[in-house]
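Methods — Computational structure assignment.
A single polypeptide chain was analysed. Its primary sequence is given first, followed by the predicted tertiary structure written as structure tokens.
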Amino acid sequence: MAQTETPGHIVEWTGVAMIGRITIKRALKRTAGWAAVLAAPFAGPPARSRACIFVYHRVAAVGFVDGRVDDWNVPPALFERQIASLARFAEFVALSDLPHKLKGYPPHPKPLVCLTFDDGYANFHSRVLPILKRYQAPASVFVVTDLIGQQDPIPFDSWSRRHRNRVGPEAWRSMDWPELEACVGSGLVTVGAHSHRHLKGGECTQAQLAEEVGASREILARRLGEAQSRAYAYPYGSTRLGYVPPGYVHAVRAAGYQLAVTTDLGLADGDGDPYLLPRVEAHAVDGPCVLAAKARGVLGPFYVTDRLRTAKRAV
């Protein structure tokens, strides 16, 4: 099948027709999750020198599924079950502490888990933060600095533009500065940059990349403090699909960030490049057992579905 590009949060799957694309995509993810749960008992003990960095986007009460455009949403009730399950067997680690933790001794008795959230939706403040407080779980939220406080759906989110009148604004608007300040004030949340304008790295000049990383870091440091400008999340995030070219990594390093995360699938390793940290997506079809398998590094089935991604992705 020829590649077809549609607007919004886009992941095209090889051989999948547009009709029912999201339904098929969710079925594939669900099947991979079941396979991971079945494989988990045979996977051996969890690796002690690696960590699972989960990535979320929207955590909102939506109540419907658009068969054409992915919402990248985990319902709040499911999100709390996921966090409660992780809290029982894993150790939550702030992303900023992860490099030290991965190189620390003795080996950690529990799997290490980081929570990250891309795009900076208002539902992070209203829905996620109360749950983080209940479980004392640290998290990092990555914001697009040019969109902070914008009262319209963010430009690269077609789902939000399509459904803005069907759901409340917390499902699609960006956090404003007071909300970000409240998150930082909780002592659990670290803010990082998700670029200044959310451009596609593979289509930018080196000067544009320097502006994307430099402007976002300067704005966050000035408004929230230096500690809130040390981590970066690459828009779109995939090195394999060309969204994180070497020049982008160089720009992030040169701007003074201490680490950066991609959307490449995998566990973070103490010997890995701190500017190309892999992550693991948390989905609306992931029950607690699936999330536990992911946290323990049972990722084989998800590598299969990840390889089906062939085209554009706006996250």
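Note: Confidence is low (pLDDT under 50) at residues 1-19.
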